[in-house]
């Protein structure tokens, strides 16, 4: 199965950045502390410990979408995709405009080989933020896996048109374009 390396790297950035945007009322201080410990464990690469902290935080603050999102991201990294999908779905229920959750759920569906659901989630993510390069690349990767090379190339090229030339992702996307073009020629 084709690995989605770019999204995994960018997923880490999203999870770490989410910590800054999470607002807890004073009475939920314990949940905030557990959430911060979960993020520390995530950054340290201890995803099971992160899941434990996020799970405890959820018991204290069950309506905070960022906690479900981060726990889902942790589950995805350790390849517990069904649990990741459950948490991303809960994130979406609590925050319907959470385009990152649609994207990450799409990644989990891709890895479970549920490509129609993956594409649906990438499309939903892009309907919320039409310039979300990560979702474009993920959609392109899924389309390439399905041998829909022209559509995949279109997604990669659109992503490139949005990024500045000096961004590190540009080279990775150019490599994806080369690989997809090569596969297309063999078809």
Low-confidence stretches: 1-14
* Fraction in helix: over 70%
In N-to-C order, the SSE pattern is: HHHHHHHHHH
- CATH secondary-structure class: Mainly Alpha
Q: What is the total tally of β strands?
A: 0
Instruction: Give the structural class.
Output: mainly alpha
Distance between the termini: 18 Å
Main beta sheet: strand number and arrangement? none
Radius of gyration: 17 Å
**Please, how many helices?**
10
Q: What count of structural domains?
A: 1
The coarse overall form would be elongated
| CATH topological fold name | Serine Threonine Protein Phosphatase 5, Tetratricopeptide repeat
Please tell me the overall pLDDT.
88
CATH 4th-level superfamily: Tetratricopeptide repeat domain
Task: Walk me through this protein's architecture.
The structure is a single chain. This protein is mainly alpha-helical and 187 residues long. It has a single domain (5-186), classed as Alpha Horseshoe (Serine Threonine Protein Phosphatase 5, Tetratricopeptide repeat), CATH 1.25.40. Helices cover 78% and strands 0% of the residues. The chain contains ten helices and no strands. The chain has helices at 5-21, 29-43, 47-60, 65-77, 81-94, 99-111, 115-128, 133-145, 149-162, 168-186. Helix 1 (5-21) runs antiparallel to helix 4 (65-77) and helix 3 runs antiparallel to helix 4. The protein is elongated, with a radius of gyration of 17 Å. The two termini are 18 Å apart. The model is unreliable at 1-14 (pLDDT under 50).
């Amino acid at each position: 199965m084709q690995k989605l390396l770019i999204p995994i790297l960018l997923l880490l950035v999203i999870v770490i950045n989410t910590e800054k945007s999470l607002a807890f009322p004073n009475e939920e201080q314990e949940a905030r502390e557990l959430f911060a410990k979960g993020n520390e464990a995530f950054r340290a690469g201890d995803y099971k410990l992160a899941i434990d902290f996020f799970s405890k935080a959820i018991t204290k603050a069950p309506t905070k979408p960022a906690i479900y999102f981060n726990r889902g991201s942790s589950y995805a990294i350790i390849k517990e995709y069904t649990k990741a999908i459950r948490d991303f779905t809960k994130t979406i229920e609590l925050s319907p405009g959470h385009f990152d959750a649609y994207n990450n759920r799409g990644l989990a569906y891709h890895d479970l080989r549920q490509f129609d659901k993956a594409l649906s989630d990438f499309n939903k993510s892009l309907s919320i933020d039409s310039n979300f390069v990560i979702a474009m690349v993920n959609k392109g990767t899924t389309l390439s896996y399905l041998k829909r090379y022209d559509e995949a190339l279109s997604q990669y090229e659109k992503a490139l048109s949005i990024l500045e030339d000096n961004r590190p992702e540009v080279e990775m996307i150019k490599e994806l374009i080369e690989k997809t073009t090569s596969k297309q020629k063999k078809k």
